[in-house]
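Example record

The entry below shows one chain as it appears in the dataset: sequence first, then structure tokens.
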Amino acid sequence: QTQHTILTKQKTVHAIQTHCQTRKETMSRYNISHETIINAPVTKVWKELIAIDDWSWNRWTKLKSSTPPKEGIQGKLLASYDGNDVWKEFDFTFGKVSESDYLLTWKGSVGLGGCLFSGYHTMRLEEVVGEEGVESETSNTTTRLIHREEFGGLLAKLGLGLPYKTLDRNYLLMNEALKECVEGKK
């Protein structure tokens, strides 16, 4: 190896180490957030959301786990960027899962502690009661689905590692598909 190649590699390693030490201050501009109103009670939406083994409504993401969602349980996330049953597999771990808070989270990372890449995915439900212009056919309650992902690490900071615009579109499509599924069930 030439002296130039060695110096370039050393600079790259130094840049990664520096980034790893300061990554908490460098969140990605590619973070995703969507909110969708679903005309159904929050308990009905939660029942569909937490049933990860039956996400037939979701053509873009599948969560595979040997047990029901529970904090700390690891699994495989399958992503179909085009919603066409061509799947890419990633490791993930469930974060906080709370029926009382209607919260489902999961996370994944690459590199030491997520230095190269990390993602923290949240799907949270809120009961909406009596908001003007928002009504449910079954009651006066509707549900707000708040769907977010925060990305971290060097790759996310540089806009590398995932197709962020496609994910942004897909998360909105997931929201709309869950809405259609729940509202279509009597």
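Notes for this example: The first strand starts at residue 32 and ends at 38. The chain is about 30% helix and 35% strand.
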